Amino acid sequence: PVVGYCQGINRLAAIALLLLGEEDAFWCLVLIIDFLMPKEYYSSHLMASQVDQRVLKDLLAVKCPRLAAHLDNHQIDVGLITFNWFLTVFVDNVPFETVLYIWDCFLYEGCKVCVLVSNLL
Fold this sequence. Notes:
There is one protein chain. It is built from 7 helices and no strands. By secondary structure, the protein is an all-alpha fold. It is globular, with a radius of gyration of 15 Å.
């Protein structure tokens, strides 16, 4: 895969290192980057990450049309708020116990969990 420098990766590694030994943490990071996240999620242009932001925006328009309209009226791009959520799989954005629940779902279901959890928040 094509992986560029991305500050979000260090947060993923940190959580893995908190919960696993060094080698297992490395392989957990490999699993996340190579298998759970779409190709080019952590590339230099973050294209797949941007796609997820668009999916969230479209889902928000369907599920919460008043909120989506309000954000649009004030020219607020939801991606500016949620982009870091997706890159770090919520490591910096919710209490640690909640992160662990989200990661359980994420490691089982994959990156779609990011969009679903974002819609709940």
